[in-house]
Design goal:
By secondary structure, this protein is α+β, with helices and mostly antiparallel strands. The protein has two domains: 2-233 and 455-471, Glutamine Phosphoribosylpyrophosphate, subunit 1, domain 1 (4-Layer Sandwich); 241-440, Rossmann fold, CATH 3.40.50.2020. Helix content is 30%, strand content 25%. The chain is built from 18 helices and 25 strands. The strands form six sheets. The protein has an eight-stranded antiparallel sheet. A six-stranded antiparallel sheet has the order 5-6-7-8-12-13, with helices on one face. Helix 5 (129-138) crosses helix 6. The longest helix is centred in the middle third of the chain and has 15 residues, at 256-270. The structure holds iron/sulfur cluster. Residues 178, 237-239, 384, 386, 388, 435-438 line the site of iron/sulfur cluster (SF4).
């Protein structure tokens, strides 16, 4: 998952992009980057590994002048966690500087990469986004819009993009619309961002969310609607509402907070826990779900687990070596709330089960008499190929175990998963507009066969990049 932003027609655009990225930090903590364009069309970029505030000390932002800027926060779903894969990508091709921020995953990136390499393309990263850059740059079409369209005609999967060619900025959502993109107005200029929380922080006014297949060009203070991409059935990622987006955001036309409360209410209807003393959340993503569960069940809402906010989100840290240690660092139980009680613990989802196992053991050591685990989404039975880092089939606990086996492994007294129908109902899906492939196995595209090829290349890629990238017109 990634966070993307674009600002056009506003002085010190890079500073606003920086603030927006700050609000989108939850969408990716591995790397951050900004490319800014000045009035002469000169592009300057800075990318680095780490959090937004670490990558951008004030001095660096001052070196990114201009009224147009795009930014990116990344965590790896395609390609490994190295600087070469940080975005925005910035290249200089025959039409001028091209900068690109991508949220999503291309499902046919490996095949396209092989074809491009055979034709002489040289890749500097293992990220699928660079495939798009090559396809645009190699297009024989005349105008930038034709080149983009030409490139998009060859890719499959999830791509929500903010890109600049010359001084024009484009916002694009793939025809299935897996990932969100907002269009907003700010002091006569324009902003594109993954979530509305990034608009709030800079005082931008939401104009609308781009629909699946929609793309716009922003130039000289105007937003131009370009012809729709060839239509597909919408596949909004339901996991954006369950876990990924911030609760203070509105995505896919739905308040994330309200959707999560309703998920909690629905969970209480489907899996009540009669006789329990209280309910609490695994903070923070399940907070609103526990609130909904409490409202529906009448159980007292408590704070039974305290989260250390100076530790990254477990789910989006790449690699699993330090995952168990991170659980202990991240959460601590409130013994006075838990001791001698029958407790309901609400979490948003269960992926590998490692975090939950550690948490259950923790609350039992804190004296819980009974532990009833409630999950506000169905069992995850398959990986995501559209931009969320759910692991392989082998690592997914629900892909390899029955609910009863999972209950026993976690050591809880009862375990309840929300039903698929309950999840979709709570998220307001009356028209079948959501992707639920990781829960149902119904993938809306052909799924990639050889994801390993790209990661193999990481082992051999020589990183000569500093964290500064420049392109001159
Ligand atoms: S597979 Fe799951 S996580 Fe991926 S886009 Fe679909 S619903 Fe979202």
């Amino acid at each position: 998952m990634c966070g993307i932003i674009g600002v056009a027609g506003v002085t010190h655009a890079a500073e606003l992009a920086y603030l927006g990225l700050y609000a989108l930090q939850h969408r990716g903590q591995e790397s951050a980057g900004i490319v800014a364009l000045d009035a002469a069309g000169r592009a300057r970029g800075h990318r680095g590994m780490g959090l937004v505030q670490e990558v951008f000390p004030p001095k660096v932002l001052q070196e990114l002048p201009g009224e147009t800027a795009i930014g990116h926060t990344r965590y790896s779903t395609s390609g490994s966690s190295v600087l070469a894969n940080a975005q925005p990508s910035l290249v200089h091709y025959h039409t001028g500087p091209l900068a690109l921020s991508h949220n999503g995953n291309l499902t046919n990136a490996v095949q396209l990469r092989e074809q491009l390499i055979c034709k002489g393309s040289i890749f500097q990263s293992s990220s699928d986004s660079e495939v798009l850059v090559h396809l645009i740059a190699r297009s024989r079409k005349k105008t930038p819009e034709e080149q983009i369209l030409d490139a998009l005609g060859r890719v499959e999967g999830a791509y929500t993009l903010v890109l600049t060619i010359g001084t024009a900025m484009y916002g694009i959502v793939d025809p299935r619309g897996f990932r969100p993109l907002m269009l907003a107005e700010l002091n006569g200029g324009w902003v594109l961002a993954s979530e509305t929380c990034a608009l709030d922080i800079i005082g931008a006014r939401l104009v609308r969310e781009l629909l699946p297949g929609e793309w716009v060009k922003i130039e000289n203070g105007r937003v131009i609607d370009l012809p729709q991409l060839p239509p597909q059935r919408p596949q909004r990622c339901v996991f954006e509402l369950i876990y990924f987006s911030r609760p203070d955001s509105v995505v896919f036309g739905t308040s994330v907070d309200l959707a999560r409360r309703e998920l909690g209410r629905q969970l209480a209807r489907e899996h009540p826990a009669p006789g329990a003393d209280c309910v609490f959340a695994v903070p923070d993503s399940a907070n609103a779900m526990a609130l909904g569960f409490s409202e529906e069940s009448g159980l007292k809402l408590e704070h039974g687990l305290i989260r250390n906010h100076y530790v990254g989100r477990t789910f989006i840290n790449p690699g699993s070596a330090s995952r168990t240690t991170k659980v202990r660092i991240k959460f601590n139980p409130v013994r006075e709330v838990i001791e001698g009680k029958s407790i309901v613990v609400v979490d948003d989802s269960l992926v590998r089960g490692t975090t939950s196992k550690g948490l259950v053991s923790m609350v039992k050591h804190a004296g819980a008499r009974e532990v009833h685990l409630r999950l506000a989404s169905p069992p995850i039975i398959g990986p995501c190929y559209y931009g969320i880092d759910t692991p392989t089939y082998e690592e997914l606990i629900a892909a390899n175990n029955t609910v009863e086996e999972i209950r026993a492994q976690l050591g809880v007294d009862t375990l309840g998963y929300l039903s698929p129908a309950g999840m979709l109902h709570a998220c307001g899906d009356s028209e079948g507009r959501f992707c639920h492939a990781c829960f149902s196995g119904n993938y809306p595209t052909a799924i990639p066969k050889r994801r390993a090829a790209a990661s193999e290349q990481d082992e051999t890629t020589t990183i000569t990049d500093t964290n500064l990238v420049h392109a001159n017109q």
